[in-house]
Please model this.
Amino acid sequence: MTGRSWDRVPIEAQSIDAPLSRAAVFLVVTVGGEQAALTKACAALDGLDDLVKTVGFRDLGARLSCIVGIGHGLWNRLDPGRLPRELKPFTPIAGPVHDAPSTPGDLLFHIRSERPDLCFEFERLLLDSLGDSVTVVDEVSGFRYFDARDLLGFVDGTANPTGLALPASALVGDEDADFAGGSYVVIQKYLHDLKAWAEVPTPLQEAIIGRTKIDNVEIDDDDAPRKSHKSLATIVDADGNEHDILRDNMPFGRPGQREFGTYFIGYTRHLWVIETMLQRMYVGVPPGAYDRLLDFSRPHTGTTFFAPTRPTLEALVQAAQAKLGAS
Ligand code: HEM
Model:
């Protein structure tokens, strides 16, 4: 791997390394086109760390955290022309059978805690402070399901990088020094057809995912006619280096509405790594042999953001505020 090799998660990075929580809220908003909306949104972003303290201090053991990601369009309004090198809108994919749509989003708030009420309270106060400067595009409350399983019944998150591999995979390094310590974030909200999935025999479900269902053991599918999800999402470059990402997927749902979903969220040092995973999943390897997980899981959103370090976020917001104040 090239560039800086992190020996720890830098203190200035947002809480990307926060452990898998029991509860999470994924909030995506767009910011109004007027200057007043931008000014108000900047003020709310400026107060974000204080708001985490205000709510989080009420139960420190519940480890409330909030990561903010900024989309390409908003970043260009805040600091035109000076963007993280790979930041661009989510590229939609048209596969032979399944498509991945690109949907709007200026700001992503990834709110995590051991307690759903803390996530709720934080989101409530955050939206109060954003007021009419934003329009909510999507809001999902996720929960931990048994031993970190998705609603398809498989343990999700096992292959995530840990220790020193975590910042090396998830945080930008010297290759883009102005934005080092930040992270590209891609989200997709998937809805599952659980009825159809339940009709698939367990051995075939396991071949589709690439792990056994009960005990979560990896399945070698080198010689299998169709690659599993796990293999399609494994990215090895021309030099033989494997490129991981950090996922913090969460189940969500409303059984009364027959709504069952997985909120995919991936943090990555290089946006191209997630883009390549998506290409392999939707187009297939070889082309046509797409990820059969998609026969039972449909993406309803798809948006890319960049989560800068705290000092970069502060500088970005303060420079924009100074410009807005002067105009
Ligand atoms: C419906 C949505 C999805 C579900 C339910 C899902 C579920 C899973 C499960 C159960 C595993 C195996 C255990 C693990 O290592 O975590 C896995 C692995 C993985 N998934 Fe997904 N996934 C979804 C979407 C995605 C997407 C959209 C991406 C990337 C763009 C992705 C990337 C990965 C990666 C990188 C691995 C680990 C591969 C390895 O073993 O190295 N997943 N996923």
